What we know:
Structural class: mainly alpha
Mean pLDDT: 79
Low-confidence stretches: 157-169, 173-177
Number of strands: 4
Amino acid sequence: xxxxxxxxxxxxxxxxxxxxxxxxxxxxxxxxxxxxxxxxxxxxxxxxxxxxxxxxxxxxxxxxxxxxxxxxxxxxxxxxxxxxxxxxxxxxxxxxxxxxxxxxxxxxxxxxxxxxxxxxxxxxxxxxxxxxxxxxxxxxxxxxxxxxxxxxxxxxxxxxxxxxxxxxxxxxxxxxxxxxxxxxxxxxxxxxxxxxxxxxxxxxxxxxxx
Length: 210
């Protein structure tokens, strides 16, 4: 496991010197300490494991680096977090704005295989396809509802001064506003956006009062 240099810069000077076994007062700038630590990590992977165990919070993976490691988009990363596929280690807060953003455990991120990511993407594609098929079926049912409403409107005879005709009529009027007495029909009609049909029913009723 290799750490980018910019990640090592998140460590404090005292943390770097403590890990290297050096006194805090050593005459080396922080940049030089990072370079020396980076060379050790390149030389022996065991140092990377020990460093991560010592400072897991400081070396956590931010959003941008996570997308680079996983080769994914911002939308995918956020979706995987929402689906709890990509666990959040904790949230960092930007000062002075107070904006929080999620970071991830580095070992967890590095342990996600490419095949697993492709499986997540394939499952999402299948879910999107299922939603589209369901939406198409819903639209077809809505069209059938519209046709049923239009048929009822055509066959209905609205008597003057009678707010509701018959005991089995699917449409009645409150004042001049048409409403559906059948709850299922009303819900389907709302989904189908049958505003035009409702306006036609209102016109029929208004004409009957003249």
